[in-house]
Design brief:
This protein has three domains: about 1-75, no CATH class; about 150-190, no CATH class; about 195-380, 3-Layer(aba) Sandwich (Rossmann fold). The strands form two sheets. Strands 6-5-4-7-8-9-10 form a seven-stranded mixed β-sheet. Helix 1 (about 1-20) crosses helix 2. By secondary structure, it is α/β, with parallel strands linked by helices. It has helices at about 1-20, 25-40, 45-55, 65-75, 105-120, 130-140, 165-175, 205-220, 240-245, 250-260, 270-280, 300-315, 335-340, 355-365; strands at about 150-155, 160-165, 185-190, 195-200, 225-230, 235-240, 290-295, 320, 345-350, 380.
């Protein structure tokens, strides 16, 4: 009983101190932390440190605050460094199935690494609730890269370039009209918007769940002005505002109230037409990176989807189509909707697992690369 009371005190003290320091700590993260230290039973501050960091911190920018809070509560011991590479896949035999005599706790840790690696490669459609609980924490740590685009707004520059006439004249007036100093301007830059278009038909249920979590993580990191999210079911629904909630649990409760047509049918062409005519034409898609997540099964007119994809391609900087079935051996994009959309896509990728999400994040940070001419009827870059 005393050990359980001490455990509860540690959990509450660290979570309370983090919240007081401005770190968002969801209730689910506190529960995961309690389970982690209950299972690990750390006997030194280093073990407690990594258990808390792995479960309580959802965003990289909160690491500094976590270190300061932990040092204040448990001392100034510097935490050890994490291994640079992901642990390799190791298979550990279970007891009674050829287990090595004398295997100790190190074997259990290797088994945990093996489980994590399998989770990383497992298709979302095969996940149970336990796997989802672990995957949600990993997805929350993925960060969409920030790409910059040219801005019409100019900013001051030290090197000679375009003369800032107004500032130069003001400086001259301060020196009896002599232009002793010249000021210059240079073209500015601004972040390129990221737009998610998610198919929420019944066949996309497990994948939509993962990508909504990814969209929430991107929105939390970059803000709702830089990340827009829409879902396409029987109609188009904008989810940017509910996804701007910092707490994932609150965000997903708000999502459930906002979109009433979850996991039914979908009309991709009609939904995309509504997006292009409304939000897209008003600037949401203009110059943006658009990530369209769908298996391409279209109940409406495939020709409409094709024409609207061509319209989207003219608005956007880059269009990435994510199809979970692309990773299946022998898959070919033969569905009518997929075949109509593919000529207007820059990248065609899989999004069926945590590993493929990580690859997608890396892809979004790279310049667009198109094979054999790209858009307009030739082959797309299939990765």
């Amino acid at each position: 009983m005393e050990a359980e009371a001490e455990l509860e005190r540690l959990v509450v003290a660290l979570a309370t101190a983090l919240r007081a320091a401005g770190v968002v700590v969801p209730v689910g993260a506190v529960i995961a932390f309690a389970r982690a230290i209950g299972a690990l039973a750390p006997t030194e501050p280093a073990g407690l440190y990594w258990a808390g960091r792995a479960t309580l911190i959802c965003h990289r920018e909160d690491l500094e605050a976590y270190d300061a809070v932990f040092a204040g509560l448990f001392g100034s011991l510097p935490p050890p460094r994490l291994p640079a590479a992901r642990p390799r896949l190791v298979t550990v035999a279970a007891a009674g199935e050829g287990a090595v005599p004398g295997a100790d706790a190190a074997g259990a840790r290797l088994g945990a690494y093996s489980h994590s690696e399998r989770l990383w490669q497992e298709d979302f459609a095969r996940y149970g609730e336990r796997e989802w609980d672990e995957a949600k924490l990993l997805i929350d740590r993925l960060r969409a890269p920030l790409q910059l685009r040219s801005s019409r707004r100019l900013k001051r520059a030290r090197r000679p370039g375009r003369v800032d006439l107004a500032r130069t004249v003001r400086q001259a007036l301060a020196h009896d009209g002599e232009a002793l100093l010249s000021s210059y301007l240079v073209g500015g830059e601004r972040p390129r918007r990221l737009v998610f278009l998610l198919d929420i038909s019944g066949s996309m249920k497990p994948y939509a769940r993962a990508f909504l979590r990814l969209a929430h993580a991107a929105t939390a990191a970059r803000g709702p002005r830089q990340v827009e999210t829409f879902v396409l079911g029987t109609r188009l629904t904008r989810l940017t505002r509910p996804l701007s909630e910092r707490d994932p649990d609150e965000a997903f409760e708000a999502i459930g109230r906002t979109a009433p047509d979850w996991y039914g049918g979908t009309r991709l062409g009609d939904g995309l037409a509504a997006f292009n005519s409304g939000f897209g034409a008003r600037g949401v898609a203009r110059g943006a990176i658009v990530v369209f997540v769908s298996d391409g099964w279209e109940r409406g007119d495939p020709a409409l989807l094709g024409s609207e994809m061509a319209r989207l391609a003219r608005l956007a900087h880059r269009v990435v189509w994510v199809n979970p079935h692309q990773a299946s051996p022998g898959y070919e994009p033969l569905a009518a909707g997929m075949a109509a959309a593919l000529p207007h896509v820059d990248d065609f990728v899989a999004g069926h697992s945590l590993g493929s999400l990580e690859e997608l994040i890396e892809l979004l940070g790279q310049p667009a690369r198109v094979v054999a001419g790209g858009r307009g009827g030739s082959r797309v870059a299939i990765r």
